[in-house]
């Protein structure tokens, strides 16, 4: 090793040069980076003596404390060592001077087979929601100020338990008001203890899949159906059995007798997702009997039953009889907003304790402030008022979409009835047309959801699922006009249009 003093001077000079360049980082951060970079890249070999903190501070024009904190951090991280009485030295860095630490090539991403399969159930995440995004509520109409006030109220009063790990199934006031609401509005048979608050319906599906089915067990799914549930059951290793949906919803009678017996049956009986049918009473009774025969659990996903426009909401399947083999799944993503991540399960009493324990183990409970705010939101009547307002709003948004699509509809575009919910389905003649509309939509800045993508088995029926709830009437009109005109031009219908 050369003379330590010469080395110290050299380090000082090098640092002086580096720190003279203009830079947005703080001086302390720059000194730290310069020393660490020098050590990692071998410019400061092991054993090199650092100038004293006093010398460095004077020559670099920074406070001594700034130098000391950078040096102390590097000592703590093992890049430098302090030898009392002798000074600070570059540690005997294990990569040495020959093996420099250089950034490797980025890792090539190899997902598991399960991961690759799950990608098929998702859209690219970076895309912004546009006029036709299905399942997005009117975020522009959510009473944000009132909500913030309720959150603040409970933030200020939060008891210490809310800061702890807990295993209680959710805030008791929320489970109580929710129970009253579900009994009255949805004819669900329950007591507050049967409700488990989750981070949305998705987590509810996840718990059901993990706790009630084993890898390879069969889950019967509506075909077409909800991609969130499909993805969740696929990731739990279940065998997804598509069950055709017709104008009356899930049609189990159409399955062949050799179809594997179900462990779980997923269904959206109030408003089939995405085609919109309501499961009639005869099919409900048959489904309950079938589940009992097979010892299967029905998962009743009641995601948007609040939004019916032509009749009162249909009573739940769960409430049709005592001890029905049904787990009722609800969400606040549609009535409030999806980012809230609050939903719930109504469990049969025999399952409550296990679900509560395993939920606390796998996912942890939390969001107690939001849960308490939500209890007040429901209890003080804001929830019912918001639902009533949104029903009116969605009726208007749906009729704006219908009007905009009228030229295409009068030339043969088939639209779903739209008695309920937050989207319409436009049925198309061919997959080529579906592809072309999705493609042209992308170019026009619209993300169109192809109906065939809701099927587990290709090719599925061609069509488009057109969400109308999350965009303003003006946006809906603009997008609807575009779709109507594009459909007309692609199907070579010719009519004259007024100005858009
Ligand atoms: C059929 C269906 N179920 C449930 C949900 C809600 O899921 P979450 O509560 O996880 O947001 C959605 C949302 O799009 C849905 O379309």
UniProtKB/TrEMBL annotation:
Put simply, this protein is called PLP-dependent aminotransferase family protein
Q: Where is the HTH gntR-type domain?
A: 25-93
Protein keywords:
Aminotransferase, DNA-binding, Pyridoxal phosphate, Transcription, Transcription regulation, Transferase
On the tree of life, the source organism's domain of life is Bacteria
Supply the CDD domains for this chain: AAT_like, WHTH_GntR
Could you tell me which PANTHER family the record lists for this protein? HTH-TYPE TRANSCRIPTIONAL REGULATORY PROTEIN GABR
Q: Which InterPro entries match?
A: Aminotransferase_I/II_large (IPR004839), HTH_trans_reg/aminotransferase (IPR051446), PyrdxlP-dep_Trfase (IPR015424), PyrdxlP-dep_Trfase_major (IPR015421), Tscrpt_reg_HTH_GntR (IPR000524), WH-like_DNA-bd_sf (IPR036388), WH_DNA-bd_sf (IPR036390)
A molecular function annotated in GO for this UniProt entry is: pyridoxal phosphate binding
Q: Which family does it belong to?
A: In the C-terminal section; belongs to the class-I pyridoxal-phosphate-dependent aminotransferase family.
Does the record's keyword annotation contain rRNA processing?
no
């Amino acid at each position: 090793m050369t003379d330590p003093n010469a080395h110290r001077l050299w380090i000082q000079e090098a640092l002086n040069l580096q720190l003279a360049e203009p830079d947005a980082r703080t001086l302390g951060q720059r000194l730290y980076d310069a020393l660490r970079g020098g050590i990692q890249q071998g410019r400061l070999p092991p054993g090199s003596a650092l100038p004293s903190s006093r010398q460095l501070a004077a020559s670099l024009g920074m406070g001594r404390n700034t130098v000391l904190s950078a040096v102390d951090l590097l000592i703590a991280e093992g890049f430098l060592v302090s030898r009392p009485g002798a000074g600070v030295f570059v540690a005997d860095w294990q990569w040495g001077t020959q093996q420099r630490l250089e950034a490797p090539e980025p890792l090539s991403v190899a997902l598991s087979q399960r991961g690759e399969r799950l990608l098929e159930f998702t859209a690219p995440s970076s895309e912004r929601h546009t006029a036709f995004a299905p399942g997005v509520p009117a975020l522009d109409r959510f009473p944000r100020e009132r909500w913030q006030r309720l959150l603040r109220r409970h933030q200020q009063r939060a008891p210490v338990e809310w800061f702890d790990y807990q295993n209680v199934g959710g805030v008791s006031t929320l489970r109580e008001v929710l129970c009253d609401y579900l009994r009255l509005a949805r004819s669900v048979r329950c007591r507050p203890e049967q409700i488990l608050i989750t981070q949305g319906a998705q987590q509810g599906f996840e718990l059901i899949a993990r706790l009630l089915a084993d890898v390879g067990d069969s889950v019967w799914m509506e075909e077409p159906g909800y991609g969130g549930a499909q993805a969740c059951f696929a990731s739990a290793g279940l065998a997804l059995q598509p069950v055709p949906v017709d104008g009356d919803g899930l049609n189990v009678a159409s399955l062949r007798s050799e179809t594997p017996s179900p462990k779980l049956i997923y269904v959206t009986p109030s408003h089939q997702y995405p085609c919109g049918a309501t499961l009639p009473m005869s099919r409900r009774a048959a489904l309950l009997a079938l589940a009992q025969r097979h010892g299967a659990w029905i998962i009743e996903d009641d995601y948007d039953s609040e939004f019916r426009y032509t009749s009162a909401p249909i009573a739940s399947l769960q409430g049709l009889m005592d001890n029905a083999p049904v787990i009722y799944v609800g969400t606040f993503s549609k009535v409030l907003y999806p980012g809230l991540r609050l939903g719930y399960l109504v469990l049969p009493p025999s399952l409550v304790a296990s679900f509560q324990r395993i939920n606390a183990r796998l996912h942890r409970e939390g969001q107690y402030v939001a849960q308490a705010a939500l209890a007040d939101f429901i209890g003080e009547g804001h929830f019912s008022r918001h639902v009533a307002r949104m029903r009116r709003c969605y009726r208007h948004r749906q009729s704006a979409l219908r009007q905009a699509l009228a030229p295409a509809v009068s030339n043969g575009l088939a639209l779903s009835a739209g008695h309920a919910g937050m989207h319409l389905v436009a049925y198309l003649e061919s997959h080529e047309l579906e592809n072309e509309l999705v493609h042209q939509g992308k170019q026009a800045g619209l993300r169109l959801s192809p109906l065939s993508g809701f099927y587990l088995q290709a090719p599925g029926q061609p069509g488009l699922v057109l969400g109308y709830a999350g965009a303003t009437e003006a946006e809906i009109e603009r997008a609807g006009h575009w779709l109507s005109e594009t459909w007309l031009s692609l199907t070579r219908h010719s009519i004259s249009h007024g100005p858009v």
